[in-house]
Structure formats: structure tokens, C-alpha cells
Amino acid sequence: MKILLILSVILFFPAGNFASSDYGAFFDEAGKYYNINPSLLNAIAKTESNINPDALNCANSNQSCDYGIMQINAVHLPKLKKYGISKEDLLKPRINIFVGAWVLKNCINKNGTNFKALNCYNGKIENNNYFLLVLKNYEYSKS
């Protein structure tokens, strides 16, 4: 129950600019646009790529690839193409962070403001401790 309360506070009550990277303005901008705490977006980027805008992971069990700072999975490419966003665009930090915020917002809308929203971002809702890694990085960013 405590974790659910913490997640609710993190997701909906931004605590200022804790986005402690060179991309802080992008996290702030995307967070404001999607009404998501920018520090949470930063914590996801830390968890996913260690804040590496050039990160590329094609070692997923389903043979798909993840791109950029927020590690956007290729499963989203057909929908992103409708908005003029290519996989090459996902290596641009601002675009990638906005797409990551869009993915998370869709997860929140689908699963609610709880650990399932964070696990959804990771692609597996049940039997997944991904949300704990994100929360650890969130707490670290505050210290």
C-alpha cells in the first residue's frame, strides 16, 4: 500500500526540477505536456539507458529493438510513423523523451496510477519488479 501511495504522489505531483541530466529541460517540457513528474521520466531514462541518448538494445526476447534515452521499443514504430516519427528520430533526445512520456501516459491511462503503469512501460505488467528499479532511481535523483 505504501508503494502505491508513493507512486501516486510521484506521478501526479511534480516536485520541481529534479531532472539531473543534460536533458533536464526536455524531461521538464515532456512532463508538463503529459502531466507526468519530470523526475519520474528522468528515473525511467536512468533505468532504461543510464541517460544514454545513443542507447540501442536489440537483445529483447521477441527480437525487437529499443531506441534512445528512454529505450522506446520498435513495437511503437507503426503508430509513431503516422505522426512522422522514424526510428532514426528516436535517437534524438527531445523526441525520444516526448515519446517515452507518451508511452507512459498511455500506460497510466490503461492501468491507473500504480506500479502497473511503470511495469507497462517496461512491456510486462505482471511478475515484474521493474517499478522498483525506477523508484530506486527516482529516490536517488532526489538525494
Tally of DSSP helical segments: 7
Q: SSE order in H/E notation?
A: HHHEEEHHHH
Tertiary shape: globular
Query: Within the largest sheet, what's the order of strands?
Result: 1-2-3
Counting helices, strands and paired strands, the structural category is mainly alpha
Which stretches of 5+ consecutive residues score pLDDT under 50?
1-20
Please provide the count of β strands. Answer: 3
Q: Measured on Cα atoms, how large is the radius of gyration?
A: 14 Å
Distance between the termini: 24 Å
Helix percentage range? 55-70%
Largest sheet properties: 3 strands, antiparallel
Q: How much beta, percentage-wise?
A: under 5%
Overall pLDDT metric: 88
Explain this structure to me?
This protein has 143 residues and is mainly alpha-helical. Helix content is 55%, strand content 4%. The chain is built from seven helices and three strands; from the N terminus they run H-H-H-E-E-E-H-H-H-H. The protein has a three-stranded antiparallel beta sheet. It is globular, with a radius of gyration of 14 Å.
